[in-house]
Predict the 3D structure of the following.
Amino acid sequence: MATQMAPKEVDAATARAAVAAGALLVDVREPGECALAPIAGAIEWPLSRVDDVPAALADRARPLVLICAMGSRSRLAAARLAALGHVDVCSVAGGRVAWEAVADDSATGDPGLDGWERQRYARHLVLPEVGASGQLRLKAATVLLVGAGGLGSPVALYLAAAGIGRIRIVDPDLVEASNLQRQVLHDEAGIGTPKVASAAAAIRALNPRVVVEPVASALDPSNASVLLEGVSVAIDGSDNHAAREALNAACVRAGVPMVSAAIERFRGQVSVWWPAAPGHADAPCWACAFPAPAGVIEPPSCAEAGVLGVLPGILGSLEAAEAIKLVIGTGESLVGRLLLVDVLGMRLREVRVARDPACRICGGRA
Ligand SMILES: [Zn+2]
């Protein structure tokens, strides 16, 4: 009596990525077939002896990828193993034929990714919107992150985890005890040390292959263009109008997209400001939406107004998602849309923002 569960079928490329990520490849063909046409790296467990569990399969939590000649016996075996309590079992659609057909792609399709990277980024590699080409773009990218505080914390951590090649992180401040309520990049041991040093240590601990360039100073009009050199995306995690204004002006001059977020109390906003965005005829810069020069309107600081600790985590994560999409060149960015987040009522809404032809920063530049 077979318990009828729909066995999970995956294509050969997905199966190869799963194996690269640690799943066990199990060949359920009979011994004579395996001897004639072996599948490299597979352990043999013929369907005819499926109830006779080998020692290597005693761990029912271990992901298993089952394969046969054409994909039908592995489906039967997958259903049987699922019924026996194996929680993560899939069958390779098309069997060994399909598996071998993608072998060349696996061997030569990710020329810039080694085994460590294929394992580390396996969940990206199976996404068609990312894949090896997207992962290589992340690896080749340099990102400028302004601010190693509440917004900069999730940005730095998620970009490092995603495999961004180089993160240039700019912040003049030292870690204070009151930062730790929301700035998850830092910890108790880092109090009193430069935020960029604490950030660099956290990034390297998470992903030692990321190159970190800590810059312990404020971004201002005098250094913004130099800090943008070689950068594909700039991320604003600063806490003041002046830094945002300087970064925006330099980004407009350089044609670099600026992902920017701001937070206060329970509310935040995030967008991508990029007048040079391909396919957007009237994409605004940040100053199109916030034309008042720095010093005229300076929003209250977190110290004055307070901020829910998780709020920058949400907005910074949204910034990281936008930056990753921009680097890969996938999806629809927030260009021309300002996303407003209200955590107290837990509501999201967005407003359209168009370029201001009279903008003092980007006007006439398009
Ligand atoms: Zn503008």
In short: The chain has two domains: 8-108, 141-352. Residues 141-352 form a domain with the Rossmann fold fold (CATH 3.40.50.720).
